[in-house]
Design goal:
eight-stranded antiparallel beta sheet, 144 residues, single chain, Umud Fragment, subunit A, 10 strands, mainly beta
């Protein structure tokens, strides 16, 4: 299962990092020596700082979606969850990260779908202790 530990970020400080030009996955570009823009995570990735949290992903249930153990999820609580979104959900007071499947809503339940065939969907009925806590807007991956 992919659980998630929620932490609040610090968004008041500016963190401008140099940004490389478009990066191709093929042959290197001679223009690679010219950096002219900057990227500020707070300015460019965070749309609603007062409603944004980070979460440390634990587990492998979302690995086929590219969300792996040790990744950081950027969760925006102001987004209205939609069918197919990757969400951070709270079930019985535990956080998890899964795809939101609303296709069975008219039948009286919804599902949280993992992105790993080792795990089955989690069925959520009206009487379950459940809440979509936020929508995953970004993930940050550590390579080294």
């Amino acid at each position: 299962m992919a659980n998630i530990k929620i932490i609040k970020g610090e968004f008041e400080k500016e963190l401008a990092l140099p940004m490389a030009p478009d990066i191709k996955a093929g042959f290197p570009s001679p223009a690679g020596d010219y950096l002219h823009e900057s990227l500020d995570f707070n300015r460019d990735l965070i749309r609603h700082p007062e409603a944004t949290y980070y979460g440390h992903v634990e587990g492998d249930s979302m690995e086929d979606a590219g969300i792996c153990d040790g990744d950081i999820a950027v969760i925006d609580r102001s987004y209205e969850p939609q069918n197919g979104d990757v969400v951070c959900a709270c079930i019985d007071r535990e956080f998890t990260i899964k795809y939101l499947d609303l296709t069975h809503k008219k039948d009286g339940y919804i599902e949280l779908r993992p992105a790993n065939k080792k795990y089955k969907p989690i069925r959520i009925d009206a009487d379950d202790d459940f809440k979509v806590w936020g929508v995953v807007a970004w993930t940050i991956k550590r390579w080294r």
